[in-house]
Amino acid sequence: MLKHKIITLFFISVIMLLALLSFFVAIGVGYFIMVILLWFAVVFLGSSFISSNYHVDAYCNNPLEKEKKIALTFDDGPNEITLLILDELKKYNVKATFFCIGINIEKHPEILKRIINEDHIIGNHTYSHSHFFDFYRKNRVLEEIGKTDLLIKEISGKKVQFFRPPYGVTNPSIRSALEVTKHKVIGWNIRSLDGILKNEKFIFARIKKRIIPGGVVLLHNTSLHSVKVLEQLMMYLEENEYKVVSTEELLNIKAYEK
Ligand SMILES: [Zn+2]
């Protein structure tokens, strides 16, 4: 949890050491710039990859799982595509986790109800999913998480515990906000890139290559090709005797507050 602080302190120490040394030997300004750029690179990578646990501790998979069990997660719903995903999951009697956006819940409360009625898990995926979310200060992040929590509570009566930051990007504001809300951050270790790529074959091949016991798959509710990928994935998992379990079961944590 302190990774960011430790890394930053380390880089500050290096800069101070260089400054001190420069009293005795000539040190070019290039060295200072290099250290600062290196710090930027570490912060950038740590913030971009949720599994780095750089700003927050995230549950991205269960590394101790030996059996062929994996969990499926779907971001950015609820919307019309969610209905097709639910139909597909029902065929296989499989339970997944849906990380929902507040504004979409306001548009489709009945779809959120269906997700819950079919025993899938709901997680918080912010209210607006804004492109500027990562520039929000702590209070704005708290507002975003709070509004979506409230919407889900009003519809389902459940107080969600799972949160997934947009794009898996984290920063000190998100970390401070989560210290207040106490949500558990759920990441992934099998990223399909279905939000960026369009080629179903390529997306499916990408997932297939990464499937391991204890894995958490990230898919989206945003386009039809994700549904087609899901169809192939469900067949593949069945053929290979993989069991799809809920994130609660796989990660051994509770999705709702009692
Ligand atoms: Zn998202």
Number of strands: 11
Shape: globular
* Ligands and ions found: zinc ion
How much helical structure, as a percent, in the residues?
40-55%
Radius of gyration: 21 Å
Question: In a nutshell, what does this entry contain?
Answer:
This protein has 258 residues and is of the alpha/beta class.
Architecture overview:
Helix content is 49%, strand content 15%. It contains 10 helices and 11 strands. Strands 2, 3, 4, 8, 9 and 10 form a 6-stranded parallel sheet that branches. It has a 3-stranded parallel sheet with strand order 1-7-6, with no helix packed on it. A two-stranded antiparallel ribbon has the order 5-11. Strand 2, helix 3 (80-91) and strand 3 (97-100) form a beta-alpha-beta unit. The chain is globular, with a radius of gyration of 21 Å. 36% of the residues are buried. Bound molecules: zinc ion. Zinc ion binds next to strand 2.
Characteristic terms for this protein:
alpha/beta, 10 helices, 258 residues, six-stranded parallel sheet, 11 strands, binds zinc ion, three-stranded parallel sheet
What layout of secondary structure does this protein have?
Blueprint (H helix, E strand, L loop, with lengths): L2 H19 L7 H20 L9 E2 L9 E9 L2 H12 L5 E4 L1 H6 L1 H9 L3 E4 L13 H19 L2 E2 L1 E2 L8 H10 L2 E3 L3 E2 L8 H11 L4 E6 L3 H16 L3 E2 L2 H5 L4 E2 L1
Parallel strand pairs: 1-7, 2-3, 2-9, 2-10, 3-4, 6-7, 8-9
Antiparallel strand pairs: 5-11
Helix pairs in contact: 1-2, 3-9, 6-7, 8-9
Zinc ion binds next to strand 2.
